Amino acid sequence: MESKELMEIGLTEGEAKAYLALNKIGQSTVGPIIDESGISRSKIYDVLERLIQKGLVSYITKDKTKYFQANEPGKIKAYLEEREKRIKENKEKIEKLIPFLDKERLEGKSPSSIQVYEGFNGIMAAHDHLFLRLKRNEEYFFLGIPAFQEERYHEYWKEAHKRRVKAGIKCRLLFNKKTPRSVMIDRNSYKGSDARYMPIEIETPAWVMGYKDVTIIGLQAKKGMAIEIINREIAESFKNYFDSMWKMSKHFK
Description:
By secondary structure, the protein is of the alpha+beta class. The protein has two domains: 3-76, Arc Repressor Mutant, subunit A (Orthogonal Bundle), CATH 1.10.10; 111-248, Endonuclease Chain A (Endonuclease, Chain A, 2-Layer Sandwich). The protein has ten helices and nine strands. The chain has helices spanning 3-8, 13-25, 30-37, 41-53, 74-107, 119-128, 130-133, 151-167, 181-188, 232-248; strands at 57-62, 65-70, 113-118, 139-145, 170-175, 193-197, 206-211, 214-219, 225-230. Helix 2 (13-25) packs across helix 3 and helix 2 (13-25) crosses helix 4. It starts with a helix and ends in a 5-residue tail after the last helix. The mean pLDDT is 89.
């Protein structure tokens, strides 16, 4: 086994060299370990202590002298399993922490700010901010939703609507007139969603989403992007545009 492989599972270079040296020479004092591994005397005890903590090395004392030995190779698997367990636990902790950090970061933004998100994941990230900013019975709107979208967008919107319903958030949606009826039927099937065709003939790949003091301008092209603008006056202006269109629209039948 090469030290590189041990390093890939979480050991430092020194730890890997010390373990391999001990595994090769057997029970030993530090002298032979230093000679075989190339680790300096000033560092060898710290390295061996860390290996002991990891369960990969043990020692016995004879005549006041420590003799170290590498534990059976099977302990490497046990160490890796324990490390994976800790990573999983830390991941769960981080997943619980992320919403709090996101909320804190968003609340700490200046009264006016602009941020650009690129690609599919970026657009979804900008959209998902609504779940941090809106409360039950509050609402967002979409203006100018494209008639044709990649399937991955449709799949995302469906999951987002399920999440929206669970959060008790409402939405009003204005789609391009060429949008298939199947899409309109689907969007209207979710509680709290009112999807309609736009009252005028206009075709554009860009859409506008808004709520509170937030406006998001999205472009679902090959290299999509979303521009998130936090500014109350801009948000109110786009909301007025939307409301004017909404008054002219008709319930989907």
